[in-house]
Amino acid sequence: MMDTVISVKNLVKEYKDLRAVNNVSFEVLKGEIFGLLGENGAGKTTTLEMIEGIRKPTSGTIKVLGLEIKKEMNKIKEKIGVQLQSSAYYNYLSLKEILELFGQFYGKEVDALKLLEMVDLSYKANSYVGKLSGGQKQRFSIIASLVNDPEIVFLDEPTTGLDPLARRNLWELIAKIKDQGKTIILTTHYLEEAEVLCDRVAIMEKGEILKIDETHKLIESSKEPYKISFYAPKIKENALKQLENMGRLSNLGGKTNHFEMRLKTQTLLNIAISIIHEYKPESLTVGRSTLEDLFIELTGKRIEE
Fold first, then answer.
1. How many domains is the chain built from?
2. Where are the beta strands (DSSP E) in the chain?
3. Domain of life, per the record (predicted)?
4. Residue at 299 is within a domain
5. Do residues 230 and 257 share a domain?
6. Same domain for 275 and 209
7. Contact 2, 32 (CB under 8 A)
8. Is the pLDDT of residue 54 over 80?
9. CATH number for position 24
10. What is the C-alpha end-to-end distance of the chain, expressed in Å?
């Protein structure tokens, strides 16, 4: 059984009339990537900052590596790495100098070039943060969180503002960090990111956790886990009525004879496919629900990116 490295129980954070985090409880297991997923304002970052010791909880308990943050935060800080925003770095020091300085904060001798090589930035060793692209800044901010060789790494919206290619490159970096045996807890509002990276996900909405589980189990818990998309110009009205009786049939994007269908069981899926095949569809795609489908099911809305 995997060890628990973070334990959060009945966590509450209030600001005057606003309860930003409402009675949140969860555990993070050693060596996993754990995601807090939700739209902006859901309480993800506030929760993360309380675990990091940046914000003080109104009530509740937090333990990191068996240590209580209220009593032993200084010990905890030696064992965690926190991703900073690019604006937090000294603009008069080079990347190499920043990493070496951070190492001195922890009493460690840092091989800055080795860290920079990990994210293909060794050729930028003598550059300033302000001269980096958005993707380069994010990659640097992540390796800067590794200078003290932490057991747990905290990443807050690590790929926000990046183009799709830069985002995927960062996913590869995060996976590499996990492969080093480190535990990662991250916040994100990108559903695909949570689905690709996270071993377990907690879906947050209005300061509360709606659902938490292994990512694949969350997806499987959808009420309609099977879906079909098809284009069938020759399909008849009676066949469409048959399909409507088996699941949720909708016109895809308002296009004529383009349909999407959601079904509850594998048996219904197989029957629906056989009916559609009789009318020789020009395209047919069969798939499973996604984390986005479950999020819409739980909240009634999409996350706007």
1. 2
2. 4-15, 18-29, 33-37, 59-64, 67-68, 80-82, 152-156, 183-188, 200-205, 208-214, 226-231, 248-251, 258-263, 283-288
3. Bacteria
4. no
5. yes
6. no
7. yes
8. yes
9. 3.40.50.300
10. 37
Rounded Cα gap, residues 29 and 220, in angstroms: 21
- Same domain for 41 and 128, yes or no, is yes
Whether pLDDT at 164 is above 80: yes
Q: How many CB atoms lie within 10 A of CB 66?
A: 11
- Alpha-carbon gap, residue 86 to 26, rounded angstroms: 29
Over the chain, what is the mean pLDDT?
92
The fraction of the chain above a pLDDT of 70, given in percent, is 98
CA 234 to chain centre: 42
Does this model's pTM top 0.70? My answer is yes
- The owner of tokens 């699941």 is 247
CATH number for the domain spanning 264: value is 3.30.70.2380
Indicate whether 102 and 158 sit together in one domain.
yes
What average pLDDT does range 233-258 have in this prediction? 90
Contact 156, 45 (CB under 8 A): yes
Measured distance CA(44)–CA(35) in Å, rounded: 9
CA neighbor of 103 nearest in space, from 128, 123, 78, 124: 78
Nearest C-alpha neighbor of 283 from the set 303, 267, 300, 260? 260
How confident is the model at residue 260, as a pLDDT?
92
Say how far residue 223 (Cα) sits from the centre of its chain. Answer: 22
- Domain containing residue 125: 4-220
- The pair of structure tokens assigned to 94 is 């080079």
Strand order in the sheet with 80-82: 80-82, 152-156, 183-188, 33-37, 200-205, 208-214
Structure tokens that stand for 259 in this block: 């349909």
204 and 281 housed in the same domain: no
With a cut of 90, say whether residue 60 has pLDDT above it. yes
What would the pLDDT profile of 199-245 be if each residue is shown by its tens digit?
Answer: 999 999 999 999 999 999 998 899 999 999 999 999 999 999 999 99
